Structures are given as structure tokens and as C-alpha cells.
Amino acid sequence: MNSTMQKISIEKVKESKIDQVDFNNLAFGSVFTDHMLVCDYKNGAWETPKVVPYQPISLDPSAKIFHYGQSIFEGMKAYKDTDEKVWLFRPLDNHKRLNISAKRMSIPEIPEEFFMEGLKTLLEVEDKWIPQTEGSSMYIRPFMFASGNGFHASPANAYKFMICLAPSGAYFSGKVKVLIEEKYSRSANGGVGYAKTGGNYAGQFYPTQLAVEKGYNQVIWTDDHSHEYIEEAGAMNIFIRINDTLITGPTSDRILDGITRKSILQLAEKKGIATEVRKITVTEVVEAAKNGSLKEMFGAGTAAVVSPISAFGYRDVDYDLPELEDSYASQIKKDITDIQYNRSEDPFGWRVGL
Amino acid sequence: MNSTMQKISIEKVKESKIDQVDFNNLAFGSVFTDHMLVCDYKNGAWETPKVVPYQPISLDPSAKIFHYGQSIFEGMKAYKDTDEKVWLFRPLDNHKRLNISAKRMSIPEIPEEFFMEGLKTLLEVEDKWIPQTEGSSMYIRPFMFASGNGFHASPANAYKFMICLAPSGAYFSGKVKVLIEEKYSRSANGGVGYAKTGGNYAGQFYPTQLAVEKGYNQVIWTDDHSHEYIEEAGAMNIFIRINDTLITGPTSDRILDGITRKSILQLAEKKGIATEVRKITVTEVVEAAKNGSLKEMFGAGTAAVVSPISAFGYRDVDYDLPELEDSYASQIKKDITDIQYNRSEDPFGWRVGL
Q1: Would you call A191 and B190 a contact, using CB atoms and an 8 Å cutoff?
Q2: d(CA A327, CA A296)
Q3: Are B80 and B98 in contact (CB under 8 A)?
Q4: Cβ-based contacts of A143 with chain B (< 8 Å)
Q5: Contacts of B208 in chain A (CB under 8 A)
Q6: Considering only CA atoms, which of B238, B285, B272, B283 is closest in space to residue B258?
Q7: What residues of A are in contact with residue B139 (Cβ under 8 Å)?
Q8: What is the ipTM of this complex?
Q9: N or C: which end of chain B has fewer CB within 10 A?
Q10: Distance (Å, rounded) from C-alpha B306 to C-alpha B308?
Q11: Which domains does chain B have, with CATH numbers?
Q12: Lowest-pLDDT range of A288-292, B142-146, B172-176, B348-352
């Protein structure tokens, strides 16, 4: 990569809109800060990123993002501790995964320095916007898309890397009820399921809408061939506790390598919880629900952190999960958020100060 | 749908840029006309489309097109005959397919009147731009995407339907060499392969780049489970002639229901060419290449019309196809383009005058 970074320039807004925001009633990802980071890829190189006022993007109608779906993103959070110090959680893993997605989608990879310095500079400018209220954090959305023009179905010659910030509350409120899906699928072997690319999300909306109409919140995807293996939920990886063992499926070219997922595996191991990373069949989960050995199911992802599942539906039958006093989900959520908000030691070296 | 259409308004450019265009050297989809059609979906309804000067689109950085891939499109052409009369080819089929794609991607369907009247009005305004030069046509790109804002992974509440026009020459020049792909896949059972959505194209770019580096022009996709069944090429459906029978795979939820594909089947039948719509295995094609019964392979699609394949690669072996004097590909291409350009009778009722 022949991209060399100069000092990041900062163009500030004349007047902040922070006073219009009610930080005690933040929704998820719907209020944006005063500034954003923009970095253009042109003539085979990334230009130096710039912090500019949050503003509309102007694109030619033939820009390939509108036609051929070259788009990728990451989801991250920044946390403010009681001393007003700001922390990131495993940010280099997000950078790595962004570039893994980039490669699969024929988007040029972005150097670590551009990503990390861009992120830090933007967060420093927006420090006042980072919420300190319980359960809130600064949701960070790095994204890249094809801005180059033309109707030829081939990779674009120009791209934008951007970061926007949204002070946010919880993604899901309360427990979620999920439907194990057997007709629609999320991804193919040899496809793009492991990339965090727009099309993977758009493809889930319709089946999810159908599930919502039946009273569920999310879909649990199964493999597209046999529909017998549990893969992941829409925006989350899935964990299943049978007796006292915590099980999650292996990552593959169909499944996103979730950062929360792998953190939970490490954390559980350290806590002495038995973990298994292996294929899980729907039959096994249904059997476990019937014989009472199924104790918990929960989703794991940056947006939702740990999202307990109250029930799952399969072939027109709903299976309720027990209400546990001291669930793995609540223990793990507490341990991870304690690390994220600097309320505990971080034996893993996950926390990165701004 | 509670969308009611008023009269389409037309805002003309002050000065046309048509004089800057060399109509004898048109590339594919890289020169755009003076105007475009824009139609907004807001508050649960499509507003009346407008013809406006071709201009950049302005979108919030959180617009869902950048993050969640809700985008669909169609490819069509307008043809000018020697009397300067303009013709479309099966335009209602494009409208139908756009709405099939829309439903799968949770995008609101657009009424036929909005699509057809919008298209006709725009083409009338741009009549001078429709090329009459041999082999050229007006490439028409209707597309729809999520313009609504927010980082929640759910369908947007606002969309844009647009049509842009690009006077264009041939998509491929010359014969293409294809690679039968066994590692990467285009689509999953129960996925979005049958929808003309951006992500289906972006996902093909990287495997296609790898094929191009090995000397091929395109990839022939196989099923994601066994890689034994031939599905389609990137921007084309595939036809295979064994002896005197023309074979193409059945459409499915993984394969685009190509308008050129189904036109070829009807046309071949009328010409007395035996056709078969059935699954084709790679083994069968390789055997046919070895024993000499494989006579032709060609791609079919709006952009390329009929695109003869000169050779295919499979497991590091290249199989050349014979050069035929009066190939089905050339016969069919002539018959279809004669209908499209009003050079022959149209017994099928495919041609629609503007």
C-alpha cells in the first residue's frame, strides 16, 4: 500500500448541536455527533483522513455503492469511566476484520495508522459527546464504500472510508425471542457471510420481518443446505448453555468472527466455565429444551453485548428458556462491561485508553 | 399501495452536454445523459417522479444504503430504428422483476405506472441521446436504494427510485473465456441470488479478480454445496449446446430469472432448436468437451445480449470450444437484436414502441 499519512486536519463546526440531545434517553444509533472522519481512496492510494463537520455525502448517481453493493463496516464502542477517561475495546481487532471484509469485497485495505489515528482524533474532538450515563456508550461506525462511478459490474476505482459517532443506549431492550429459520438463509459456503458487508444485512430483513410478524424479535440462521446446523443470529453470534457447558459454533466463511464472541470464550475459560466450540444441531437444542438440560441461549455482539434469549420457536412450537438467578449471560455481561468501562482489572489486555 | 401519481414534472438543463460525446466510440455505461428520473418514497408512499438535470445525490452518512445494502436495480435497453422510432424490449418484465427483488430486500414495491411513465418520459426528453450506430443502444438503469437514516440494522423508512441513461457500446468485446468456480459461491439456498441486488455483484468481484489474474474473463458459478451443478455467470445466465440441444439450468432462489434467458428459450423453440431446462453437471460438460459433443457455450443477459464463450477452465485444464460457422449463439443474437431494433417481425410481442 503506497498510502502515506500526513497530520489529520480538523475543521470544526461553528456551533455544536449537543445541547439538543437528551443523554438520559438515548436510542441506538440515531443521534450523531457534530463531526465525522472522511478519508478518500483515489488513484491507488488513501489520502490523509480529515475531521469535518457532520454533513451529507454527495455522490454521482452512477457511484457503485448504489448498484453493486461494495460496502463494509464495523461496529465499535467507546466508554467513559468515572474519571472521564475514554476507553476502546480491542480496536485493532476491528481494524483487522475491516480489512478482511475489504479483501473479500474487493475494496482496498486501509492501513492501521489511518484507522487508529483517525478514530482517536475524531473521539478527542467529540469527547463531550461520549456518554457517561449507565448502559450508554459512544457507538462508533467505521465504514467503507465504493464512491467511484460507472455501470460496469466491476470494482470501483474510488472509495470512501468514514467514521461516524452516535451516542447510544441499549440495542435491544429486554430479552429476545428468536425463530430458528429453515427456509431462508443468510450465507453460502464460499460466500461473503464472514465479511461485515451491507448485503448480508439487507438479505436478512425480509425473513426477519416475517419472523417479527409471528411474534419473534430475531432469526437464528441455519446452514443453507440441511438447515440442521445453527449458525448465527442477525446481528449476533449465538451461545447455547447445555447443563453447565457453554457452546458456540465455529467460525467459517459463512459466519462472522465476532469480537464479543471470542472475548466471551476467553472470559468463560478464565472463569472456569466449560466451553465448546463445535457445530450445534437444531435437534440437539430442541432435545435439550425438552429434557431440561438447555439452561440458556444468548446472542453476543458489539451492539447488544450479551442479549439473553427468553424463548425460541422451531416448526411452530415455542420453547421457553428458564429464568436463572445467576445466569452465565448476566455474569459475562457484567464482566465484559466492567472491563469496557474500566470498573475492573483487564487481565486480557483488551482495554485501550484513548 | 397508497401511492397516487400526478403528472411527471420536467426540469431541463440549461445546456446539453451531448456535443461532448463521441457516439462512434461508446464504452459501456460510462457516459450519462443530461437528465435523470428521481422518485422518493416517504411516509409510506411513493411521491410523483420528477425528471431533473443529472446531478449528484446528497445523502446523510447514516443513510442505510451505506451500511445495510438495501439496493436493487434493473438493466434494460432502448433501441432506435432507421426511422428514428424508439423501442423497448419486454419492459414490463423488468418492472415485475424489480418488484420481486424489492420484496426480497424489504424495499417497497413501485407501481407499474410510476415505472413505465417515468421511463417513457425520461426517454422522450433524452431522445437525441439514443444512439443509432450499429451495435449501440441506450442502456437504461432503473435502481432503488435505502435513503433513510440510522444505524439500526432494520429496513429504512425512506427510499429513492431512479432511472439513469447511458448511451452504450458492447459490454464485452469478443469472445469470453470462463472459469468454473469450485471454491467461492454466488448464492445460498434461501438466499438472495434471484434478486438483482448490489451485494450479489460485490460478492463476485474478488473471485472474478482471481479468475482474471489466471487469464479468464468471467466465473461460472456452481452450487455452494457440491460445486457440481452449473448455475450462472456473473452478469449472465449460461446456455450450453450439446450436439444440437440447447440446455440451460432452471431458475431457482439462487439464480436470476433472466429476461434474455427466457427470450432465448422461446426463440429457440420457435426456430425448431431442441431446448432443455434442467440441472447441468460440470462432469457432463467436461465429458461433452472431451468427446466432442459440446458445441457451444454462451452467456445471455441484457448488457451482453448473447456472449459466446471460447473456452472454459476447470481444475487447471482449459477446454476450447469449436469455432462454428453458423452457431446458435450468432443465430439467436441476430434474431433477438433484429426484433429489438425493429428490423424483423416480432411474433412474440416483446417490442414496445415508446
Answers
A1: no
A2: 8
A3: no
A4: 66-67
A5: 154
A6: B238
A7: 151
A8: 0.97
A9: N
A10: 6
A11: 9-168 (3.30.470.10), 176-340 (3.20.10.10)
A12: B172-176
